[in-house]
Amino acid sequence: MATMAAQTVGEALKQQGVSRRAFLKFCTAMATLMALPPQSAPAIAQALSAARRPSVIWLPFQECTGCTESLTRSDSPSVENMIFNMISLDYHETLFAAAGDAAEAAREHAMQENFGKYLLLVDGSVATGLDGAYSCIGGVSNVQMLEQAAKGAAAVIAVGSCASFGGLPRAHPNPTGAVPVSAIVKDKPVINISGCPPIPVVITGVLAHYLTFGSLPELDALGRPKAFYGESIHDRCYRRPFYDQGKFAKTFDDEGARNGWCLYELGCKGPVTHNACATVKWNGATSYPIQSGHGCLGCSEPDFWDRGSFYQALPVGSWGGAKTLAVAAAAGAAVGVAAAALARQRQRDIAKEE
Amino acid sequence: MDLLDFARGPGMQYALFVFVFGILWRLVGVLLLATKPDLSEPRRPACWKGMRMVLSRFWPRREFLQRTLATEALGYTFHIGFLVVLVFFLPHLLFLEDVFKRLIGTNLHGLIGVSWPYLSGGVIMVVGAVTVAALIALLVHRVTSPVKRLISNFDDYFSWLVTVAPLITGMMAYAHVWRPYPTVLALHLLSVELLLVWFPFGKLMHALTIFAVRAATGMAFERKGAAL
Amino acid sequence: MSATDVDTVHPLELEQPRFSVKKPEVRHDRQGDTPDAQRVERAMRNFVRDFGRTAALYMEACVHCGMCAEACHFYVATGKPEYTPIWKIEPFKQAYKREYGPFAFFFRLLNLKSKVTVGQLQEWQELLYDSCTMCGRCSLICPAGIDISSLVALARHGMCEAGLVPHELWAVAERAQRQGSPLGATPKVFKERIEWLADEHEIDIALDKPEADVLCTLSSIEIMKYPQSIVATAKIMNHLGLAWTFRSDGYEATNFGMLAGNAEWQKDMSMKLIEAAVACGARTLVLPECGHAYGALRWQGANVYGRPLPFQVMHISEFLAQQVEQGRLKLKPLAKSATYHDPCQVSRRGGATAAARTVLQALGVELREMTPGADANWCCGGGGGVVTIHRADALRYKVFQLKMEQIERTQAEVPVTACSNCRQTFDDGQQHFHWDKTMHSLLELVAGNLEPT
User: Fold this and answer.
1) Angle, nearest 10°, between helix axes C90-99 and C36-50?
2) A134 pLDDT higher than 50
3) How far is CA A354 from CA A348, C178, C350, in A?
4) Chain C CB contacts of B146 below 8 Å
């Protein structure tokens, strides 16, 4: 089975019946999202048209398929899945018609043909426990498959929090020994598109950037594209004025909640979560969790499952407990008693000597 | 575990442990020391009334006011500002209520039927800024006044530092300046932990000791019928 | 130093306005030949012996706010920061933190507070003795409630054990212990004076009565400098028709043991008075016009005795006030304006502030209180032994200016006090500054204005 990597993106889009207008709209949107100057839009259009459709291998490991769902949810042509028209998705278990050995053969063929040039997308965490036996595809462990696939990849994109940081499988007690992609792939650039799931247009934006400029966008300390993860939810949240004014909802159905007040007290992790939810939003810019009245879970941050209850406010809960303090008090009192006893003995000794 | 996870979790646990441990050590170690009974005939046998010194020494006598007003005013600006920032800012309140709840079993609302009020972030920032300004003024006084310069030691300066650091880092966190917010928030928590750990061992302990001292002196003076 | 040495090296000075020992060419501010290391050791051990829960709490609560300096006349008059009251007890505090506090082990291990040296103790001698009268103004201002004055008194114990008392103060204390009086008013001299005064003023002065209701006592300053106080006391007691007496086995109310910091001498001196009162079965012991005498017996007497005193202790001003209030003492009006200098140990420290005012009211004077007055009044600067120390004169005169200003501001004709040490401090200051105001004795005013019954 030959890949369609021979086509240019422009040719492919034309073939699919995507109008020039729709294409330019997409390029402008990409430029805006990536905070590139407006002049970039025509440059992006030009570069993308002429670019070769890259081969993309998508490996699913310990994942729930939510990341794929997020990307493919829309059933009408949209900015998000426009990208599928631009890439040559040479392997994707869920979306493939093929299955079993045929699918695996297709993958290996694509990897061989495009060695050094294909993009490796990974969703789900990598199981390392029991020598990787916890998660295998066709008898091959995630670790093995990833190591092999990464060899010929131009770049690795970890899609979703599981691939980026370990996600749900890594939550305490981490029975499968789940690790992020970056723990296995050390010699290639890895970009983390975290989120549970990530915002679809973020995936699109990163790919578009790669196709246009041939490089990955600027990343933060956790390997996430700064254009989308540079700001916290808190800093872009429309309910922020309520936080500043001290107006907080105390329960999910009180007056404050009905008035759309800040959800800090109800466990919102917005202040410590970096993502584009508050600006780009979800479902075609319809809404995002806070707008719907539920606090941010912090799903684009590492270990968000292990950071206490989603409904417990940020300052609460991890400082220990009454028992620890009781022990501290008892221990302190004991030492105090000893110190006082020593001092009193000292006085008695001196009095005796006099 | 990143810095913020440490600061919120184990860091706070260790700090609170040392805080409680140290306070008990110092208080018990002092309160169990030898006392001698006073056998003189009291002028006023109801010397417990002298405990009113606990309150009366919050403000100097009229005769001393002229020479102490500046220090008193600055001192109160700092103390009151610090307390306002501490207990009337919602994120702090949530933490304190959580501690309260875990120790007592119920939160304040469950106990007395009303919730503790709080101020808006903007007001807290202003109060915080005024508090820091007062602290700086007090430090300037400490290094320029011949009396204070002579009697001050490491404890005075270090205690100042661990007191001003949470205020400044807190304000930095609120204003989202300098580093990513989670890092500044972590620094804020760590600075609070430093204050907690230092509290029992330096002069910050006066927050607890002065009440015992005033009570003791108050009763001794009341016994003699002397002015409190 | 032997008895004769003391008399030779520190002869008494009884000609100046203030009685002390003669101004020396060479100071002898170290007593004995003890090597330095031992001096420090003795001081430390004594400091530790004196610590208790209250003193410990005091030393744990100071926040170095420096307000105590603002209350201290020595600091206010000179602006010298070393006179900050809490600074005066710094070696005491060092000893506490290193030897007795809850973290003592760590203070020593990590040398968090340095070890006290003999040099430091010598430097602090001036701070603890020359520039502190234990007047208690600092104790009144401290926001933490620390009774700094009491800590100075305790610190003096250690200094005395180490043999580091200013020599004049030590010399008069030694005399007091040995002879029964700091100023040479031995029982023999005392008896002679009584005899002479009784004769001169044709008045009965009860002495050594085997039984009496009231035991009266005196200060050597009165005996030697203001003997008219003896006459005044007798006059009033006789006028009141009381069964009273002086006792030659217990008459000296000043307690230079306490002022020097010698706990043993302090006890001996108090015991003389107590035993004399017990011997004659007195129900009331009246202390003379003296400040520290009041603190010594009224508030510390029972504690050195080891049990409650079997008699009432009153300052002469309290006694007179009581007689006035009970209607037994009527006074002729003294049509003058007066202002009252409060002896620190009687008013502020002693709780008897109101007594003198009751008496002054009975005297019918126009009372003009000083500012600050009553419990917050400025100390005269001579109490606690300071007036005996020659090298402290310059400092004391600076402080005295505060008093002069206060009294001038009232424009009162008659300054009055009820402490003969304050009185001699005023006399000395008056001479030094050529001031026109003379301090009067409340006791003498009363004696001079008795309304005949």
Assistant:
1) 80
2) yes
3) 10, 22, 32
4) 79, 81
- The boundaries of the domain holding residue B117 are 3-30+64-207
> Is B51 domain-assigned?
no
On the CB side of A304, CA atoms within 13 Å amount to: 26
**A33 confidence band (pLDDT: 50, 70, 90):** confident
Q: C103 CB near a chain B CB, below 8 Å?
A: yes
CA–CA min distance C45, chain A (Å): 7
Contacts of A335 in chain C (CB under 8 A): 102
- The alpha carbon of residue C63 is apart from the nearest alpha carbon of chain B, in Å, by 6
Contact A336 B18 (CB under 8 A): no
Question: CB of B25 within 8 Å of any CB in chain A?
Answer: yes
Asked if A347's CB is within 8 angstroms of C48's CB, the reply is: yes
Count CB-CB contacts under 10 A for residue A170.
24
The Cα–Cα gap between C257 and C266 comes to 4
pLDDT at A6: 62
Query: What is the domain-level CATH number for residue B71?
Result: 1.20.950.20
- Asked if the structure places residue B170 within a domain, the reply is yes
**Residues whose CB is less than 8 angstroms from the CB of residue B22 and which lie 6 or more positions away in sequence, other chains included:** A332, B197, B199, B200, B201
Structure tokens that stand for A323 in this block: 């028992």
List the domains of chain C with CATH numbers: 36-161 (1.10.1060), 180-323 (3.40.50), 329-448 (3.40.50)
Q: Is A350 on the interface with B (CB under 8 A)?
A: no
3-state secondary structure of A27: helix
Q: From the centroid of its chain, how far is CA A125?
A: 11
The structural domains of chain A, ordered by start, are 9-229 (3.40.50.700), 232-338 (4.10.480.10)
- Specify the number of domains making up chain B: 1
Average pLDDT, chain A: 87
B156 touches chain C (CB under 8 A): yes
* Predicted TM-score (pTM) of this structure: 0.90
The β-bridge relationship of strands A136-137 and A140-141 is antiparallel
Instruction: Tell me the average pLDDT across B166-183.
Output: 92
pLDDT of residue C443: 97
B20/A332 touch (CB, cutoff 8 Å), yes or no: yes
CA proximity to C266, closest of C371, C380, C195, C161: C161
Label residue A1 by pLDDT band (50, 70, 90): very low
Query: Other CB atoms closer than 10 Å to residue B42's CB: what's the count?
Result: 16
- Which residues of chain B does C348 touch, with a Cβ-Cβ cutoff of 8 Å? 226-227
Q: In a 3-state reduction of DSSP, which class is residue A282? A: strand
- What does the radius of gyration of chain B's CA atoms come to, in whole angstroms? 21
